[in-house]
């Protein structure tokens, strides 16, 4: 069943809390394909991606009675998927840093999703450019090159505490920047993880 224009997060939550399985199915149909692409991009496994996304929706159903009335399901589900990816990678004891080719995005995403992705990328890069140079360098070494705080401290000949402080300030600025421009914290986390 397609989501119609009158389908809102608030109305959906009310239906979920009345055990309306059709509302749950609508959410699944709306977000599961994109979530699978998001998780697969990081885990490089269709089976793991499907399992992680199913787990996200299962947790959503189990917690439906306790969800905030102002929930934004897209942000909630992406944040849940983000944590599922982190947990899976921690279990595997390694991080995957391979870039997703642009042709992959074009093959798997609709034109609207590609445009949304490109706009988010531009917005993210604009925010990053506003960080002070040293903070931007530390952020890039951590989020884009995957270096640990200790390794960054060693490379730049500064203390680990200094690296931690710079990362804290960078993340705080980026989250506030996203929120100030009308974007949810969940979308900010997606952007930060996609480019990290």
From TrEMBL:
Domain RNA polymerase sigma-70 region, chain residue ranges per copy: 27-93
Domain RNA polymerase sigma factor 70 region 4 type: start-end pairs: 125-174
Keywords assigned: Sigma factor, Transcription, Transcription regulation
Protein name: RNA polymerase sigma-70 factor
Keyword RNA-binding found: no
Family: Belongs to the sigma-70 factor family. ECF subfamily.
The species this protein was found in: Hymenobacter bucti
Superkingdom of the organism of origin: Bacteria
Keyword Transcription regulation attached: yes
């Amino acid at each position: 069943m397609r989501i119609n224009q009158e389908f809102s997060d608030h109305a959906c939550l009310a239906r979920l809390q009345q055990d309306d399985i059709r509302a749950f199915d609508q959410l699944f149909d709306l977000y599961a394909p994109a979530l699978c692409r998001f998780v697969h991009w990081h885990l490089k496994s269709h089976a793991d991606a499907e399992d992680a996304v199913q787990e996200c929706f299962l947790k959503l159903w189990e917690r439906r009675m306790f969800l905030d009335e102002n929930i934004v399901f897209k942000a909630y589900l992406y944040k849940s998927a983000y944590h599922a990816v982190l947990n899976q990678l921690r279990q595997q004891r390694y991080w995957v840093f391979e870039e997703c080719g642009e042709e992959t995005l074009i093959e798997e995403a609709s034109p609207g999703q590609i445009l949304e992705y490109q706009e988010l990328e531009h917005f993210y890069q604009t925010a990053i450019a506003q960080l002070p140079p040293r903070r931007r360098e530390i952020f890039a070494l951590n989020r884009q090159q995957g270096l640990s705080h200790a390794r960054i401290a060693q490379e730049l000949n500064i203390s680990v505490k200094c690296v931690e402080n710079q990362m804290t300030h960078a993340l705080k600025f980026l989250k506030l920047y996203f929120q100030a421009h009308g974007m949810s914290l969940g979308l900010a986390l997606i952007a930060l993880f996609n480019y990290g």
